[in-house]
Amino acid sequence: MEAKLSAASRRVAPSPIQQLSHLAQRAGAVNLAEGFPDFPAPAHVKAAAAAAIAADLNQYRHVQGICDVLAETMKRDHGLHVDPLTDFAVCCGQSEAFAAAIFAIIDQGDEVLLFDPAFETYQTCIELARGVSVYVPLDPPSWTLNEDKFLKSFTDRTKAVVLNSPHNPTGKVFSKEELLIIAQACQKMDCFAITDEECKIGPSSRWRIGWACAPASIASAIRNIHVKLTDSAPAPFQEAALVALTSTPDFYTSLKKDYTARRDFILQMLTDFGFRISFKPQGSIFVFVELPRSWQLSDMEFVTNLIKNAGVAAVPGRGFFHSSSDDPSYHHRYVRFAFCKSNDTLNAAAEKMKKLAASDARILRPTDDGEAGQTVSAISP
């Protein structure tokens, strides 16, 4: 029966993340691989979800208040005037919102430009819509947009450009100058810009509630596809998302402070282990670091050994690269760590990596650039 599976399903191979997850589970590794928080959700958001369940708000439901708040936010933060009644589709997280948007605009043979490295889900959605992914490499180490490469990637079949900012896996936030280049190119070529801001951490993202915002006719198409895919996002979680979105400014200031501390802690941890940090994440929840050349390891080898020898799980970078380059070896030289973890988790990871750096497991240590340090202090609650 396997031969009867669709061609699309056969093209979707297991990712490096999936391949290593079982090894990490068997080793009981500290999880710095997957980008989900392992600490409790905010109490007031959990209370809203619990109250909705107690009130039997558990059927198909559209919470218009989410769209009302989002419209106010778009006007305040971006100067955009959108209609909360017609210009939003509330979905089951970013993944469904992105898939519904792709299915709404992409036909067979349409090309979609993606910035490489890229989140792997994008390609799958485009293939399912029978479109063609075209990758535009960002230039390391700061992952800058190369205007010439970008503009030369357009053809008469280009239908859309996907802009992921903050960017997964690098943590890059595209500059105003880069955004202007992208916007002008989309206008000139008369193509869609699909912006994915999923990596902007907020309490609503933990409840797998996402949304798409577009002019009414496009939003209607996205919403119609969303209804056929899942009908509606879970009602209690929509109520929780509304409470999260209307949290006080102090709450979000505190949230930003906490994530900044976590980011800085993991950067110091990796520096002390022997990494040379050439790019500090500007947004997102990930650190994307290059292995020192002296380590003579690929990303897969490093992550496998890190799990086995230290009990810490990370993600090999190769799964995010797709485009050809003058130096394809760098596609196997990056590793992604997630820092959206509890202080206990981050401290445990630091201790395990410190012990590895002090042990005889030299396969993970520099050979030319000096010994890995051991100066990571604990992150405080």
Characterize the structure shown.
This protein is α/β, with parallel strands linked by helices and 381 residues long. The protein has 2 domains: 2-40 and 250-359, Aspartate Aminotransferase, domain 1 (Alpha-Beta Complex); 60-247, Aspartate Aminotransferase, domain 2 (3-Layer(aba) Sandwich). 43% of the residues lie in helices and 13% in strands. The chain has helices spanning 7-11, 16-27, 43-54, 64-78, 93-105, 121-128, 147-152, 176-189, 216-229, 235-245, 249-273, 299-310, 343-358, and strands at 30-31, 88-91, 111-116, 132-137, 158-164, 192-196, 210-213, 286-290, 312-313, 315-316, 334-338. The chain has a 4-stranded parallel beta sheet with strand order 4-3-5-6, sandwiched between helices. The relative contact order is 0.16. Keywords: Aminotransferase, Pyridoxal phosphate, Transferase.
List keywords for this structure.
kynurenine-oxoglutarate transaminase activity; Aspartate Aminotransferase, domain 2; 381 residues; 2 domains; globular; alpha/beta; Aspartate Aminotransferase, domain 1; transferase; 13 helices; pyridoxal phosphate
